[in-house]
Amino acid sequence: MERYVLNKIKLRSWWFLPCTYIRDDGMYATKTDEESFAVLKCCDGIQMLEETDTVKRLLEQELILKAQEGETTEEKRLWKHYENRYMPGLHLTITTRCNFNCIHCFEAEDSDIKREEMSLEDCRKLFEEAKNCGVQFVVITGGEPMVHPHFMEIIRSVYENDMRVRQIYTNGFYLNEETLQELKAIDPRIRLNISYDGKGYHDWMRGVKGAEKNLLEKIRLCVQEGFSVRVCMTINRINKDCAKQTLDTLEELGVQEFRIIRTSETPRWKLNAGDACLTFEEYYDAMLDLLREYAKGDYHCKLNLWKFALVYPQSRWYAMEAVQADGRNPSPNQVSCTIARYELAVFPNGQVYPCSPISGTFDAYGHKLENIFETGMKELLQDSRYLRFVCQSCRKIAEHDKKCRACFHYPQCLGGCRTVALVIFGDLMAHDEMRCLFYEKKYYRKIREILTGYRAQIEVIEPEN
């Protein structure tokens, strides 16, 4: 008989997710079986256990350790149950104020951005609610979050509530050595997601002269200070030809990831730039061109092409965003968007959305979900319009949309992005034309042909004939 303690894990359970643990270096719950979970609950350093096969397996997995004399498991690691549905992340817009005047901002319903800001007191209350619902991480965004007068206090408040900041979205303007040292002292694991809209075009997109020169200096500083940096570029007909040059610049700076997103038909962009959006086919073809150049080079920077491909050069594998499931054994409860399902998007006024990018379009079409200040997070995660929307099975899309219902690729596609469906058709449950094009034009074959020597995370199943 021996006593055991939990090793760098916390035991947690939620409605419909009764047996899980979360590693100290992780942010998502890992499911385990009932027998293993029952044993883990006894590993408090006090109870004596026999060395069963289950105990041996948990020791091999390094989930438990033999307790030293007088050693007990920390209180925070012991089992805790939350009376709500599982929601690991909070995607929080702390302000819509910004020092830039970006002509493609998705938060605005028109050309006038609403100037709203969440108070420090409301942030603290929200983080306490999040902790009591089992939320593990917070993503901080804006507007420009660093214009918030209590930005650093908000970051600290996350950790005071036993959560961590996964990522900060910023235009980088206010980053400096002092701020980075302060963030590093709080948590050096925080990833900085910095917007950069292309070499030679950034000032135009951001509406500020000299923004690009300043930004490149800030990116260099972030990398030097040891932060994980992801740079995000929105691409359109005007700046698309600078993508390769932008990639090369970021590779030289030592950026870990380069993400490209198609500039979308948000109300503000259409007012400011007319029809400068790439068509879906133009966007895919531009990404193919960039992918060809990437495959020729010796890059270390991960390439993340929105709705297209995610390429890991070190491990030599790639994923295609249009391929959401293997298609062979579809789950009846599979949701169409895991990001919407696992990150609760909240704006400064307390309004909740399926995701931040849909916010302006959602408002423009008159859709409205709950306000978290009125409803409360626990109630929101027990039963609400928001919860029913993000948890709905992707089968609902096929039932609603005849094109999805008749499509061979639906079991792998799962209907596509709700934001794209709303923008194109004004219908949240319509098919995603962008994803349809990916399969109809067989872009998955073109990606495969370019990335020889790479392996796909999930291969596309094709009709036998």
Describe this structure in words.
It is a single chain. The chain has 465 residues and is an alpha/beta fold. 36% of the residues lie in helices and 18% in strands. The protein contains 21 helices and 19 strands. The strands form 3 sheets. Strands 18-17-8-9-10-11-12-13-14-15-16-19 form a 12-stranded mixed beta sheet. The chain has a 4-stranded mixed beta sheet with strand order 4-3-2-7, with helices on one face. A 3-stranded antiparallel beta sheet has the order 5-1-6, with helices on one face. A hairpin with a 5-residue loop joins strand 17 (343-346) and strand 18 (352-353). The chain is globular and about 70 Å long. 41% of the residues are buried. The mean pLDDT is 93.
Largest sheet, spatial ordering of strands: 18-17-8-9-10-11-12-13-14-15-16-19
Largest sheet: 12 strands, mixed
Stretches where pLDDT is under 50 for at least 5 consecutive residues are: none
User: Hey, roughly how much beta strand do the residues contain?
Assistant: 15-25%
Total count of helical runs of at least 4 residues: 21
What's the total count of β strands? Answer: 19
User: What class, by secondary structure content?
Assistant: alpha/beta
Mean pLDDT level: 93
Query: Roughly what percent helix?
Result: 25-40%
Tertiary shape: globular
Distance between the termini: 62 Å
